[in-house]
Amino acid sequence: MDEEKQPMDEDGRDAIIISKVDIMKLADVYMLMKTDMIKIEKEIERSVKADHPILKEASLHLLQAGGKRIRPIFVMLSGKFGDYNIDRLKHIAAALELIHMASLVHDDVIDDAELRRGKKTIKAKWDNRTAMFTGDYIFAKAVEQASFFKDKDIHTVLSKSMAEICVGEIEQIRDQYNWDQHLKTYLRRIKRKTASLIAISCQLGALAADASRQDQLRLFRYGYNVGMSYQIIDDILDFTGTEEELGKPAGGDLLQGNVTLPVLYAMCEDESLKHEIHQFLSTNEREQQDITSVLDRVKSSGGIEYAHSLSKRYLQKAYDALEMLPDIPAKKSLHQIAKYIGGRNY
Amino acid sequence: MINVKHHTDELKVIEEIFAEKTAHPYLDVYIEKPRIDYDVILFLLEIIHSHQVTGKERREQILAALFINAAFFTHERVCNDMLETGERKPRQLTVLAGDFFSSLYYSMLVDNGHVEILPVFSHSIQKINEAKMALHFYEGDSERELMERLYSEEGTLLRNIADFYNESHLGTLAETFFLLKKLVNVRHETTDAALSTIHTAIYTCTEGEQADDVKNWPPENVANFLDRKIMELRQTLTTQLSSSYMKSTALYPRVMKWSLEDNRLWTK
């Protein structure tokens, strides 16, 4: 198949490989939502204009670096299943994108990252403290955007998700270098880390548009399963992608001690791999050939195929969740996005 | 006026919920537990007590304010210095712990139906971060600007909550009190560690140069500046406490004491 490699979301950790046809279909989805997306962009930009010049510059720095705005897209498409009003929905879309942005600013302090979306990170351009203040400021702006709504349910969903993302990241650090963890631990971690925010983007879009409870739940399920599939594929690509495709060296997760699904499966199949990885990571002078050897063992273990099959199962559940939704154009768009997100590198 | 016995019981309950909510088995290993500033509780009890809120609602709003303070306290510990690979984990968890505490204020307010007061909290956090940024990049231009930013950083949250409840006089008192308390603590610290944002801004203002760490804190000019400002704030506090209304509040003995002498961090 004619394939083209392109980052899906410029988070650094999100590079994926998709077909040209899927890219074109996705571009169509964006084109259809373009006018409303501009409104959301303007709302976010208005929101982060701080009084202090450096706080303003730092807040706009990340916003202007771009991004696919996949969460706002999910909010808008889900809003189509109810009483669609972009002047209401833009506040929830902005809140979710701001939460995502703020967590990226703090993630760069956590990862000591120099570059994001091809530009210097806030912590690299200024310093850690500037990044901390900026992230906290943007989080508060997200809550301010959400405050447009008086509906308690919207806030409850959002606040739970914010806590869940933090706990997910804390657990990721806790589970680093733990080679004996269970599949359930991995799945819970990626749910909190990635799937949760995508799931609530769909749910809140529907909720803010007063869609039926059933449709809210279906859209939540869709978002959750798409998010799970997405993260699993992302974890696969860390083993199978090249440095050029990923924007970082392959095996980066493993080097940081992050135990993802392919390696979890591989270690389960072959106990000696656990020992080899442990030895490799405890050596200060690592050779490129050593990581290549570990990556090759993971790839030949069947771990990649197993992860693909699990990702496919989540994707199928996402399609199933769409099944009972009314047949409107937004349903087709959600289907296309799921295909784009999950159908990679087969 | 607040019943003192009830007051003590309430402090205990707040303390327990705070400890329970901020506890995390993994964070607790690496992160210093956030402390409660009991004066924040005292002020908020006074600000809210005569209004149409239940005891439970009042407690939830106080806890939300304490979670915000915990988040600020924790994030203040993220410095700019370079770390070796092995030292990264505590910093990583410090960032995440602050975010976690911050998420607690939001859930505490929304889970219990305080959506009306939510913008007061989120707006205050924005303003405090504006002030922190201004202090961080302070270049020593004007002492007045420095003091405005310090007032803002230390007093914005209570000032805004007091305004929400139409208790502006208590908000003004809180601004003076918490800045005085902060400056007294900064004056008496003898740290050789990396300086906080406030330390750095005061140092820049008084010494005319910027520094990330200073041996033998406080240097002479800083000490003189702090002594002068502490004296001025004590005078302001005395004036603010002179009304018969203030004398009738449960805050009066505590705040009055601060207008006369150093009490520093208050533990029961």
UniProtKB/TrEMBL annotation, chain A:
UniProt KW Magnesium keyword: yes
Q: Give this protein's Gene Ontology molecular function annotations.
A: heptaprenyl diphosphate synthase activity; metal ion binding
Keyword Transferase on entry: yes
Instruction: From the record, give the transmembrane residue ranges.
Output: none
Reaction catalyzed: 4 isopentenyl diphosphate + (2E,6E)-farnesyl diphosphate = all-trans-heptaprenyl diphosphate + 4 diphosphate
UniProtKB keywords: Magnesium, Metal-binding, Transferase
Membership in a protein family: Belongs to the FPP/GGPP synthase family.
Give the quaternary structure: Heterodimer of component I and II.
Question: What is the protein name stated in its UniProt record?
Answer: Heptaprenyl diphosphate synthase component 2
Tell me what organism the protein belongs to: Alteribacillus iranensis
UniProtKB/TrEMBL annotation, chain B:
Q: Which domain of life is it from?
A: Bacteria
Q: Which GO terms describe its biological process?
A: menaquinone biosynthetic process
Xref: InterPro entries = HEPPP_synth_su1
In this record, what's one Pfam family? HEPPP_synt_1
| Protein name in the entry | Heptaprenyl diphosphate synthase
